[in-house]
Amino acid sequence: MERTGFCDLFAQRQVGFLEAERAFRKAKLTTPRAAALAGILFSVLLITSLAIIRISVPADPQDAGEWISGSWKIINIALNIVPFAGIAFLWFIGVVRDRLGQDEDRFFATVFLGSGLLFLGMLFMSTAIAGSTINLYGSTQKIPLNSGIYTFGRTTTYEIMNVYTMKMAGVFMISTCTLSLRTGIIPSWMAFLGIILALFLLLSFGFFS
């Protein structure tokens, strides 16, 4: 009887161990997929928004603003996509940190999280300023272009987005790729490509729209 009870207890522990191992493996498989899904969703949404804006808005931040009468509605739609891109980006950050787990380097993890949050904050700030300028026109249909409101909003949005936001994006990419090289969570060629693109963002100084 004692031997039988011992065998039953051993068998139960073995079953529990196997179930825990399966759950752990499932979590390990699910986390990279979630990170990939979040990253792709963020990319698609942000690219869609920026593409609409790039097509509809002149590149020169000092333009007179004639375009706004015919494009303010589609621009408003593009700006409303950005918050959803930001949600996907936060999800991406969280999933990547969860994937790193105990292998997370504190220094690069701090730069990773800080640059990501700064990038997202400035992205939202520039979007809010642009949205306010657009909605001002939509509510009055006669935005005072000569009063300086449009010029201020347009120039400020341009500076925040093309200078500061893009620089933080470059820092985020470098820290992400460095963590990836140390932990092997993505292929090394992808990490090196990310570093090259990040250096382009950091060193372009706004010359390439």
A few lines on this structure:
With 209 residues, the chain is an all-alpha fold. The chain contains five helices and no strands. The chain has helices spanning 2-56, 68-100, 106-140, 149-183, 188-203.
Describe the overall structure.
Helix content is 83%, strand content 0%. The termini are far apart. The chain has one domain (37-203). Helix 2 (68-100) runs antiparallel to helix 3. It contains 5 helices and no strands. The protein is mainly α. The chain is elongated, with a radius of gyration of 24 Å.
Helix content: over 70%
**End-to-end distance, in Å?**
80 Å
Total helices: the number is 5
The coarse silhouette is: elongated
Main beta-sheet strand count, sense and barrel state: none
List the helices and strands and how they pair.
Blueprint: H1 2-56, H2 68-100, H3 106-140, H4 149-183, H5 188-203
Helix pairs in contact: 1-2, 2-3, 3-4, 4-5
